[in-house]
Write a structure and sequence with these properties.
Number of strands: 13
Order of helices and strands: EEEHEEEHEEEEHHHHEHHEEH
Helix content: 25-40%
Shape: elongated
Radius of gyration: 22 Å
Structural class: alpha+beta
Largest sheet: 10 strands, mixed
Length: about 325
């Protein structure tokens, strides 16, 4: 009914014999064919990816909509998402990672866009709850690309994460053990560890965790002029992934994105803050050796200076551009 009111001539459960699939609803918008799948029950990511790929074979774009009962809000601009919820994440033309959800009983759309994970489950995002008949398919596919949180909100989350990691005994103690063996203190890390990057959604591990490991493997005790390559980073990430220290996120609707992208973006940030210097697209060198403070109060002062100098650029880099 929603699509019919927009004069898009939808067809229920039409059968495509060439791919042996039957989408919930098929329709055409601006000369583009769509196969709409409304999913409430949990299904494997492989099935979502397979169906999507099959629709693409017949030049039909897949539009997956999550059942709205799954969405768990944790604040005005914060959500808790399961791995299954993330199966529905895709990137729209404006450059926003988003998840469309619908609650037929309440006749509303719940749109989660500009998704920016802070932990494995929690993410900052812009949320819009729109009555069914007030949203067009064109608006659904063109959500704006804008900042979902302030720099202060992000900093507060990172500080809380550091505190929680040091206080609770779970799998993260592996990171702490490595820190202690190297004489490092999580609270004294440079302020650029734990920052958002545009493609952070591609990794299930939180930015604080994967950037901490990258710091250990490629920045700690490295001297001015030493070389870092993207290949080195890929190798160390793969080794830590095999050991269960780092985890990539399964995104069946975004199979063509590389899990290296967040790390390359992180290097670009390090270039901006003059920690590394770019030699070419895959090679960087240490521009200045990183010296860690000995006191938390000194680290906090460095953090204040970092965000004062770079937060405007950093948050523009993340949310005011297509990537």
């Amino acid at each position: 009914q929603w699509l019919e009111e927009q004069k898009l001539t939808p067809v229920l459960e039409t059968y495509y014999p060439s791919i042996r699939q039957r989408p919930d609803v098929a329709f055409i918008q601006k000369h583009q064919k769509y196969a709409l799948e409304f999913q409430c029950s949990v299904i494997p990511s492989e099935l979502i990816e397979k169906r999507t790929r099959q629709y693409q074979r017949i030049q039909s774009s897949a539009l997956w909509i999550l059942g709205g009962k799954n969405i768990k809000r944790k604040g005005e601009r914060k959500v808790a998402l399961t791995n299954f919820d993330y199966f529905f994440a895709t990137k729209n033309p404006a450059g926003s990672w988003f998840i469309p959800a619908c609650c037929p009983a309440s006749q509303i759309f719940i749109l989660i866009y500009n998704l920016t994970p802070i932990t494995a489950k929690n993410a900052f995002a812009n949320l819009s709850i729109i009555p069914l008949r007030q949203l067009t398919i064109g608006s659904l596919l063109a959500l704006p690309h804008k900042q979902p949180c302030s720099s202060e909100e992000w900093r507060r989350e990172v500080r809380n994460q550091k505190l929680n990691i040091q206080m609770r005994g779970n799998h993260l103690h592996i990171l702490l053990q490595e820190f202690y063996s190297l004489g490092l203190n999580l609270s004294l890390l440079p302020p650029f560890i734990g920052i958002p990057v545009p493609s952070a959604i591609l990794l299930e591990s939180p930015p604080l965790i994967w950037q901490s490991y990258l710091f250990i493997d490629h920045l700690f005790r490295r001297k001015t002029g030493e070389i870092i390559t993207v290949n080195n980073i890929f190798q160390s990430f793969t080794k830590r992934q095999e050991k269960g220290m780092l985890h990539a996120r399964v995104l069946p609707l975004a199979p063509n994105y590389s899990h290296l992208s967040p790390m390359i973006e992180f290097l670009q940030v390090l270039e901006k803050v003059q920690v590394v210097e770019r030699i070419n697209s895959h090679t960087f060198k240490i521009q200045q050796q990183i010296k860690l403070p000995e006191l938390v109060v000194v680290q906090q002062k460095l953090e204040e200076q970092f965000y004062k100098q770079y937060s405007q650029w950093l948050f523009r880099y993340n949310w005011n551009r297509k990537s």
